[in-house]
Design brief:
With 103 residues, the chain is mainly β. It has a domain of 72 residues: Ferrous iron transport protein A (FeoA) (SH3 type barrels, Roll), CATH 2.30.30. It is 13% helix and 38% strand. It has a seven-stranded antiparallel β-sheet with strand order 1-2-7-3-4-5-6.
Length: 103
């Protein structure tokens, strides 16, 4: 049996799926909330349902969109990202619904 720390949460579990892109470079799939400031990724999937997902998609975060994490608030929530040449602030819980591919 595996014992997990008391503060472990499956919602904070980083998804890391290795892959290879067209240029034969290694890529990783992870959630947006796991990226550090300055890191860039390409959206692969927006999870969730209902109004939260609709708002995320309405803000321009759709498949194959490039996203760069600009900065994090002092306590880590919210985070500022750059999407399609504009800056946007997202809660960590919203960023956890967005899967991105990084290199």
């Amino acid at each position: 049996m595996v014992s997990l720390p008391k503060d472990f949460s499956f919602t904070r579990l980083m998804i890391m799926i290795p892959g290879i892109n067209k240029n034969k470079e290694a890529t990783m799939i992870k959630t947006l909330d796991c990226l550090a400031p300055g890191e860039t990724g390409v959206v692969t999937k927006v999870q969730g349902s209902g109004s939260v997902k609709r708002r995320i998609v309405d803000m321009g975060i759709v498949g194959e969109t490039r996203i760069q994490v600009q900065k994090l608030a002092p306590l880590g929530d919210p985070m500022e990202i750059k999407v399609k040449n504009f800056n946007l602030s997202l809660r960590k819980s919203e960023a956890a619904l967005i899967e991105v591919r990084t290199q």
